What does this fold into?
Amino acid sequence: MKISLNINGLIRDIDVRPSDTLLSVLRRNGFLGAKFGGCRLGECGACTVLIDGKTINSCSILAASVVGHKIETIESLGQHPDQGWKKTEGLSVIQQAFVDSGAIQCGYCTPAMVLAAEALLRKNQNPTEKEIRDILSGILCRCTGYVKPIQAVQRAAALLRGDPVQKVQDLFQVSQKKGDEPSDEWLATPGGLLDNIDNNISTDHLPVSQKQRVLPKIWSTPEVLSRKVIGKAERKVDALKLVQGKPAFTDDVSLPNMLIAKVLHSPVAHARIARIDVSKAQSLPGVAAVLTYKDIPRVVYSTAGQSDPIPGPLDTFSLDLKVRFVGDRVAFVAAESEDIARKAIELIDVEYDILPSVVAPQNAMLPDAIIIHDEPEYVNFADSDPSRNLAAKIRIDIGDVDSGFSAADFVVEGTYEVPKVQQAHIEPHVVITYWDEDDRLVVRSSTQVPFHTRRILAPVLGLPVKRIRVIKPRIGGGFGGKQEVLIEDVAAHLTIATGRPVKYEYTREEEFISARSRHPMKIKMKTGVLKDGTITANEMICLSDTGSYGCHALTVTGNTGHKAMALYIGDTPYRESPNIRFYADIVYTNTPPSGAFRGYGVPQGFWAVERHMEKIAHELHIDPISFRLKNALRSGEIHPFSASWSEGREPRPEIIQTVGLEQCVKQGMAAVDWNTKFGNEKWHVVPGKPFLRRGIGVAMVMQGTAIPYLDMGGASIKLNDDGSFNLLVGATDLGTGSDTVLAQMAAEVLGVVTDDIVVYSSDTDFTPFDKGAYASSTTYISGSAVVKAAEIVADKIRKRAARMLSGAGEIVHPETIILSDKKASEPGGRSVSMAEIAHNSLHHDDQEQIMAVASFMSPVSPPPFAAQFAEVTVDIETGQLSVDSLVMAVDSGVIINPLTASGQIEGGMAQALGYATCEQMLYDEDGYARERDLSAYHIYRSDEMPELTTIFVETFEPSHPFGVKAVAEIPMDGVAPAVGNAIFDACGAQIDICPATPERIWQAIRNKG
Amino acid sequence: MIVEYHRPNTLEDVVTLLSRKNVVTVPLGGGTWLSQKTQPDFAVVDLQDLELNKITDDGQTFTLGATVTLQQVLDEFPISIDSMSAVEKSILIETTCNQRHSATIAGKLLTSDGRSPLTSAFLALDANLIFFPHKNILPLIDYLPLGNHFGNQKLIVGISIPKNVELRVDVVSRTEKDRPIVCVAAAIWPSNRFRVVLGGYGAVPVMAFDGLDRKRAFAAIHAVLRNADDEWGSAAFRIDVAEKLLKRILSSV
It folds into this structure.
């Protein structure tokens, strides 16, 4: 049927089918700012458009039903201001506010949020925060915790009202100056950044919360040098395209003759395929290919996106004659349309020989348990033993643990549990594959690991690496879920079978039943303590569930101990020789595979450790903060696990140079007013509500920064005619802002502004190798590579500039040249601009391309540290929990960009809050998933998020040129135990199983009597 | 999936389309649910041109047209009436801003399940469904449990609720805007008639009590929830919490 749609003020006649949603029609017609989140019920809102000025999910409204209505998409708003000879009015006020406020991370939901703000501010330019949170409630964001998007709407509202509003960058510079003068009191200053605003400018329109939220509070050590670009709140280099909804993501291209792929997923948890008949599917008009295990080579591999050799068993096939979980692959289909592909899937006739299944991990290693991996091709790694359903085993003893327990005055034991949870990035897994004109296979994929993907795919497809090119466009969130070669092989096999481009995109249900997730664990803790609070020995015994495949099995669980059990080594004399035991069995079950998820095993460990430490402190009547700090690692001490275990190469002793934990605690306590609240019975009572109790809790955590002696990143930089630079990195910015901070580092070294660094990442044909985005490594590893490359380029520039400035008997020495303000200056004040240097080198004298390639691999993994605080209110009659505020004080070394870094902390805390209170994936006894959409699997909406506060305690990590440590993963680690400890403080309920659901709290209150 | 789309401008035309034997035909409100339905093949009749998006005051009752959106309920429902704040609370828990702009009241009530606080609230209010033709009226409490409303050839044109009823809704859920695990909706008429509906589980919320003796409502909670075990909560938890919530409701009215 032909319909007329009014899109952005223009009437368009469009052919549609009655079943077409508005989203599909918009995207077919080039309005790509509306995104697909894979959901069925309009839960995510990434597809938001305005219909008659109201926010509507375009995925759940028929195109035909909006005939006669006014449709507005993100494309109707602003554009880049400078388009060569054509000038435009630039971005809209709201778009600019989103850019300036750092409200954009992955950018997948940004167009939707901008449109929502547009709808609100058209009607009301003076909205309350509640109204802003409400209008954004229809758009789920997994990156930001909603802090900066709300801030952006407030900022836009102020601008639209005509109120004077300071630049975000100016606000920060003043606050940083204050931070350069460390003072115990500065955090207590009323209003925080309020003081830093010019007194001549009215700030009445700015709510206090706005001023405090724009930028984090930063406490700097004197070692942190004041630099030109480093440490500045620069706008993200990809912000402009993302805020305009430009076609930046994998699914934003459509190739001629492209087929749509679908996968038949197993309906049973464990079975052999006795018979499979695809004839009906193959004969369906529009079906181009149907593939089963009979049609493709049987190549065993691991889907884990890790460096070679993959530290885990090889136990996976693209298609197998056996299925091992509900959701496992049975067959692939490629068809002319999604509807045809779906119908073809339904026509595949499969007969399963059902096998017994193991769903509960505690049953996996029972003597009579069915063996999940009985295939002869299975390749062991280390202690994996498929005959016992054991994917990996860890046994680490540091010191003399048993002697430590014998010496203790008390031995405290506890058992804890953490659930399987989903990354829930809003952009689903998506890939497009095609043969290029040179018969090379191009894989356009939303992946965190393009180079690993190329390496791992090659044998699976029977192609040499040189005939595969992986392109990573922008990524709509990953959080570890895309550190996996999860679906690239599906599309690639179908492209090989048909010769045609193929797209495969997960639905949200497929994300839940077939993608990766966080390892669920059962953890036993045993700790020996002296009466004075000195820990004499600490033991963790862990049962970890890897699901049906062993991807990341060893390394995720290894990190559970390596990080969480490393923090508390005991006080003297145990401090010098700690006693620590970490044992883990990582078992196979017939459930969807676990994998990488932000934090990579560490949040699991800290749930157990930090709940346990709280119990010990309570039992010993010791202040919980003093107890922790007494036993915690300090600067100059050896990482206790560094000589025993490494997820990369053989372990080597590593000294921890910087530990800002004590200062984090100090600043965090001040921010939450700990001393007023903790132990103050009056504060715990809510007047007029006798069934409510307030509580406050703390957790201390550490993470790692990259994998020593293993992971490497590369960078190349070249100078252009106008004095700008191309920075090519294999690092993958999955929304974290890593492209921006890498550009800032290059700009700092080269003496230019960030805007003069044109960043491209990543493409295996064009960019240097990089291990990808994981292990909190990009700023540190890839950043060091960038600095090295920039220093080589800077050196060449200095030499050429010295030659250009020398003459008439005057010799200018290169080492005296300073690169700053886009020019090279000699001590006497004379200078040449970068553009002049570029022209000289490219066209005039002794021509050369000034460029460099460098790479970096670290021998150390300097840990970031943090103190996490939570305030809660508990309904002691019903178990209803309300988390009222979260404060995190973080030592991540020097902060390259406070906007992007605080965005990481806020988003991480929001994600971790879900882990603490509501997120979990459960299966029935037959392995069927309870959670299959974002309704059952609830992630926090903007209108229910608590107050989030970020504090950075800067230390200078000497192993990095700019002193940085990691920031991205540590916010996942402390929220859940801090909330658990706050619940205990509120009402005495001991929550040992995460998340803290109302029934668990209700039960725990009853248990305590 | 949807194979035909119609947008008539008279109710008679809608009825004619719904009555067809050769293709299953269903009324389309906002489309939030039907647009995602892929099986079986069916036709839709869009109700948007029928002016069913009005809220009218009929003296003793309010009538909400079938295609009144949930946002309209928030914006246009008289704020002064006793039940409004509970209805508003239910809508804000159950739907996001985007969903409220397209989801219609009739569509939402007919496609929700037992965890819906809005449906619990309307059941507590003893809402009536108004059908076309003949303005047949059927209590929601009788219609919902029938299930399988898809393709039943019926056309709902409005929902009426009493004006003079005090309504309270209280829930327990994992987070403030998560779907409830326990939901208690209670309505009190000037005559002291008292109705309690329990939600948070099952296919539809369940009316536990409708009478004058409020104390008996607590016994009714036990009776209704004693088998309310599911993967989201135990019966023991639900019974205990529902009692607590009901006590609070009673103390607040």
